[in-house]
Amino acid sequence: MSMKLNWQNWRFSIFTKLLAMFFLVMVPVYALAMHMNDVGSGIVRNEISSSLQSQIHFYNNSLNKEIDRMIRLQREYVNDDGLVSLGVIAENLDYYERSSIMRQFQQKLNLMKSSGIYVTKASAYIPPIQRIVSTDELSDELPASVIDRLKRSRDRTGTSPLEYEDGRLFLREFYPSLPVSQQRDPIFVLETEVSVIQLQQFLQQISGFEQGGAAIVSSKWMIAGDTDQQVMKPIAQNVWEWVKSEQGNHNGIQTVRLNKQNYITAYEYAPETDTVLLVYVPEFEILGSLKKYKGFLMLMSLVTAILIVLVSLWVYQVIHKPLAKMVRAFRMVESGNLSISLYHRSRDEFSYMYKQFNEMTTKLRLLIYEVYEQKLQTQQAELNQLQSQINPHFLYNSLYLLYRMTKAQDYDNSLKFTKYLGDYFRYITKKTGDDVPLEQEWHHVRMYMEIQNIRFSNRLKVTISDLPEGLRSLMVPRLILQPLVENAYQHGLENTVTEGLLSVSIEADEKGMRIVTEDNGAGMSEEQFAAWRSRLASDKMNAEVSGIINVHRRLQLKFGADSGISLSPGSRGGLKVTMNIHFAEDKDKEEEHYAALNASR
């Protein structure tokens, strides 16, 4: 049962009272805290902005100095005599002279690489001899596709000395610097590859905040220190457009709003490389950990202490006393007093809890009565079942049949019959608990059917299906299957002379299982079916209870009202008795049995 409060009840609820109380007392504290936060936010924001601007200037200056040093060193190598000889008079040099010159120039390239922080590779492309001299290879073949790529790079060279191609960054120096014609190849090209990884590591050092970032931005490319391009890309585009606009500054602080978040961005433009170095920090990361001023903190602590005392006194009256009353009531229930009843004058949650407590004690009294009734009914069921099975008529027939087989010297069937009879009487006479595994019940019914088959000789054809592996351990009330089979023999097939049929089958799914007993015997009339359905639906207890009614009520007590016995006409003209067992009363067992059942299939 869920709690339903209308508008009038909500007005008197504890939550409403607490909300109104805290709202009234926290307004001045909240206003004071907001003022303190605004003051502190302005101070921290200004400090962080100044720090970011100084930091970006330092790093941008260091980076551009390093790039300028690499450019100047590369230009000095353009005038190297050995490199000029390889490009101009290589055909006049023998193999040894050319190899010696290339080795000497490779050493210079290695010196350039080792002296640069961001240099990952230095190369010299010499089209006249179709060779590449680099820090990695002394002499490598120069493909025509590389020459075409270099010529296109020379033609599109703009204001920036940096070239970005396929995720790699280069500094190139052409000789001659101005092409004689668009079709003519350069005599040689010096190329220094700037390490993108090193630049990314350099950028990661700039931002000192966890969710901040830094990047080098150009008109055609961007190198970021982090991989969060969803934030970096729009910020970089915004800053670049601002720098290149007429009113834009080459350096400064700008606030960019993105995805409902403000990002404080410091940037500085480098005209030598036509790039912008920027760093951004989410505003909430800067302002989220403001330290409170000592005076404000002391004032807030004092106000809070006074409020706690006042609210505590009020909560004691509204909550503690009703709770204490309920605790005392629960202790009386623990001592066995279920006649206690609670009443609450206010129309709040405690009124509902007290009402539910009263209903709980009523249900407990009812459940105790039902458990007691179930115990008595189970005992009566076992007693009635035992008396109905061990009766002189059944015992006389069994012993007389054993006598006839022994007299006829049919020792094989006598031994088998004796074994069946012994198993049968041992099961119904042993003292066990109320529940047994379904596997034992199934075996008992099988033994009972074997005994009856010998009695009926060849008059009946009996089948019983195999029990699924997943249902073998299912606990069921003891002696619930035999009454169904016994009913078929005594009332359905007793007068059958030939071609009698009796089948016992089992079906199961995730909701439960069904055990079907069907024969082709006498069956029932419509009046008899109506009478049985009325008896099965009735919850009245009579002094005399038949086997089927007994099984039906025991199943409902154990597995719930959805379980029990149902009767219907059989497909072969006789009677069909279905035992329904519903698993929903124990969800864990239901899943366990159904999983095991699927595995066994």
From TrEMBL:
InterPro entries, alphabetized: Bact_2-comp_sensor_kinase, HAMP_dom, HATPase_C_sf, Sig_transdc_His_kin_internal
Cross-referenced Pfam families: HAMP, His_kinase
Localisation per UniProt entry: Cell membrane
Domain HAMP as annotated: residue spans: 317-369
Regions crossing the membrane: 12-33, 296-316
Main localisation: membrane
GO CC annotations, alphabetized: plasma membrane
Keywords from the named record: Cell membrane, Membrane, Phosphoprotein, Transferase, Transmembrane, Transmembrane helix
Membrane topology qualifier: Multi-pass membrane protein
SUPFAM superfamilies: ATPase domain of HSP90 chaperone/DNA topoisomerase II/histidine kinase, HAMP domain-like
Annotated GO MF terms: phosphorelay sensor kinase activity
Signal peptide: none
Domain of life where this protein originates: Bacteria
PROSITE patterns: HAMP (PS50885)
Protein's recorded name: HAMP domain-containing protein
Source species of the chain: Paenibacillus foliorum
